[in-house]
Amino acid sequence: MQKEDGLILLYGAILYAGFYIVLITLTDQLADRYGFNTLQIGLCYIPFGVGCIASRFSVGWLIDWNYKRLSKTDPAGETTNGIKEPDTFPIEKARLQIGTPAAYASALAVVIYGWVMHFNTSLAGPLIMLFLVGNTTTGAFNVFSTLIVDINLHQPGTASAANNLARCGMGAAFTAFAQPLVGAIGIGWASTAVAFLWVVTSPCLWAVMVWGPKWRAAKKLKAEQKEEKK
Asked: What values do phi and psi take at 143, rounded to 5?
């Protein structure tokens, strides 16, 4: 229910839910458009899985690099083990300078995936886009998961649980109408709608990047005052 936590959880849940729409509808799309059997459809999930794994070496590397880059330009808050103290370090900027572009890249990849599938192109088109969708969405979501723990180091287990609850709840809700949506407007427009939702709600990330440190400072001050009264 905190402002910063809530915005991160909300956007991460929406991203995850849209990600699930692609997964849920892929089986029917491959069967209807390419006439694939169960085995062939299963094999087509491999590029998606490889893309998710590869995010460790793309987005994962970038968030580590950006953290180190900002650490060098902001000497405040360094602890004895070399890790910056979130209360005195712009951790939101360190994470979301990578996570926000990854979210926009995810939106672009989903749109292209939807339309190459809609126009029934060579199978290489959807498979390449599945790799990119898996890579960018997983990378972005991992950034948000990392940030939610970064700003809740005093209760990381609770933060992770809240993250899982938000994303799984939203994913379940979106899954319920994924097939009806695709059936009504087609995979191309459905994918465009998902990407549009991601872009429209992306100001949540900018708000966290700009005002997150102030919100954390106010939250810490309130907690300290409460502790003093005891």
From this structure: -60, -45
d(CA 48, CA 127): 8
Which residue ranges make up each domain of the chain? 3-73+92-223
Q: Which CATH class is domain 3-73+92-223?
A: mainly alpha
Q: What does the chain come to in residues?
A: 230
**Does the reported pTM lie above 0.70?**
yes
Give the closest residue to 52 by CA, choosing from 79, 6, 85, 19: 19
Q: What is the pLDDT of residues 79-107, one digit of tens each?
A: 545 556 666 688 999 999 999 999 999 99
pLDDT in tens, 178-219: 889 999 999 999 999 999 999 999 999 999 999 988 888 888
CA distance between the termini of the chain: 24
Structure tokens at 75: 């000497």
User: In angstroms, rounded to a whole number, what is the distance separating the alpha carbons of residues 33 and 160?
Assistant: 39
